[in-house]
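Table 4 source record.
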Amino acid sequence: MSKTKKLTEIAVSVAMAVVCSFIKVLEMPQGGSVALTMIPLLFIAQKRGPLTGIIAGSIYGLLSALIAGVLYHPASLLLDYILAFGLLGIAGFFKNSTSNIVIGSFLGVGCRFLSSLISGAVLFAEYAPEGQNPWLYSLIYQSTYMVPEFLISICVLIFLYTKAHRLYEN
């Protein structure tokens, strides 16, 4: 595969993720939303492998932070954006079957979830209700938007793999 084609696919995936980030079903008060953002990032990882997925996710994370224009904490740039979305690329280790797409997506989103969980518990503990453990608060907060987005993403990715399998081919 040519470098030009690979760079073009990364750029298109990142652009699609940016557009999808504006289609929100639910938006959380301190960041995060149920959108379709993860679909193109998981797809490029599963099509081209983990390195391409990590690069695309990290680029998207940086762009997303710039577009949002609000950074609640400096370490949040890394944990909530660059690292979190880059970790979606882990899905690229699992491809070429429906079960691998589910497993890879689960692991990629799970790693993103852990990055956001740490951010929420460490950087945003002050938002936890009085007396509530910040880790529990972050777990509930992150689950509220990330679990539904994961479920939507996995349904779309399975549909694409089973009905438009040629999209996954080189």
